[in-house]
Amino acid sequence: MKTRRIALAAFVCLQLAAVSRAENLVANETARHLAGLTAGGDHAAEMDRAWADIEKRQLVPIREWMQLTHPELVTDTLPLLYPFSGPDFLYAHTFYPNARAYVLCGIEPVGTPPDLTTLSPGQLQAALGNLRRSLDAVLSFSFFITSSMKNDLSANATQLSGTLPVLYAFLARAGCEIRDVTLIGLDAEGVVLENPEKTKHPGVRILFRRSEMHEPQTLYFFSSDLSSWNIKQNPGFKRFCESLGPCNGFTKSASYLMHLDSFESVRDLLLARCETMLQDDTGIMWKDFPREVWTPAAYGWYPGPIERFKDKYQTDLATWYRENKPAPIPFGIGYNWRPGMSTLIFAKARREPLKALPVE
Fold this sequence. Notes:
By secondary structure, the protein is α/β, with parallel strands linked by helices. 40% of the residues lie in helices and 17% in strands. The chain has one domain (17-349). The longest helix has 33 residues, at 2-34.
């Protein structure tokens, strides 16, 4: 009887493993189709044109600049914290291709893993068109327009909902193979839950690999309000980030939220847990890098904020640029996305290596 139970348990494990492999294969093929990498047709042609443009104009210059300027970050495997990111795995992976984990967070909904088999040909074409529209801004200007993406990938507009279709497309275009996709959440202590219905921080965990020669990597996206009030009331995301140990930080096109007292908690989290910070001028204010710990420098130019955010002008940052005349950058980033007009700040912390803070 015992031998039968063991054999039955082994059979069940094999069956579950087979189901898991099949689901992962479907997720990976779905990602490739969303990215326009499988069949021909209008979607593939449009995606190929858009990707050829952004590779030449943005991604190749970023990779080459990082390799020349910060090769240590290119090879760094520390987790990457990217608040106010939306589903922008594209730039996170381009700047930091070897991070063992990417932690993205925004107010956009996670959505559900896309299932293209449920769509009629007409529905599929409409859904793919909505996906392309949601990608237009980030591929053209380097940032998402949240309201537009919400309309293009809302449950009412298309069967491709939330951020997952965008994350899938970016992973596939980055040459990554999806190994596992799990909807998750966080409890109040930052513990990962595989029951996202009972959480203030719904999210997704995607395991992927660039090739057999590369180590597996993990992409997290959490839908969470990063205001200080919400972090105090619902500290799960903060505690999850603390449990990762030392990290690198990255942010761009962040609406200058960390300039406000109402977002000081996420600013302080980055300053406390990150070894480096790479950002445009919408991230942590120049004056808010404590000089006894941080050494900030910058590249490109500082033309000041765009008209919508003109009250966020940083006089001390402008003075630093005039006095130091830093090297230009061969790409655009942030709201001032045109080459020659973009600000890129790099800050490095001087302190003892951090340890992970255990979740309770």
